[in-house]
Design brief:
This protein is α+β, with helices and mostly antiparallel strands. The protein is 34% helix and 22% strand. The protein contains five helices and four strands.
């Protein structure tokens, strides 16, 4: 029942993530969850996608080093303490969690993405100009 996670080794430079996401989109690969851990020069982009085979091939063809890892996906309640309860189950069984990341179930029409950038105001302005709606603290509180 484990999930296949793609680990993409990415140079930490302008345009690297857009190249990956455009490559996936152009081949109808939908990203369901992602996480990125970075150093000054490189990062590891962890992806859960709808078509691992196509994603791996397309990104490998672009020169990216790809590794597939089996991971566990678990559905937990959306309430304070639910993550802690799930982690306690693993702790009790002496299972170490190396890393984790979360994604929210998407609505019928939207998914939510959090971006870390150097200049928030510039990024927000650019996205709003392109027709995107910015998520506010009030929006998060409604979820």
């Amino acid at each position: 029942m484990s999930l296949k996670q793609l680990n993409v080794f990415v140079e930490n430079k302008k345009g690297a993530l857009v190249e990956i996401t455009e490559t996936l989109a152009s081949h109808d690969v939908n990203i369901r969850a992602l996480s990125i851990a970075d150093t000054e020069e490189f990062g590891i982009l962890r992806l859960i996608v709808n078509d691992n085979e196509t994603a791996s091939k397309m990104l490998s063809d672009k020169g990216y080093l790809i590794k597939t890892t089996e991971v566990v996906g678990v559905k937990i309640g959306d309430a304070p303490g639910k993550l802690s309860t799930a982690l306690a189950v693993l702790d009790k069984e002496d299972i170490n969690v190396e890393y984790l990341y979360a994604f929210m179930a998407r609505t019928e029409k939207h998914a939510y993405v959090v971006l870390r950038v150097a200049d928030n105001a510039h990024a927000e302005s650019a996205l709003e100009t392109a027709g995107y709606h910015m998520i506010t603290d009030a929006d998060i509180n409604k979820l």
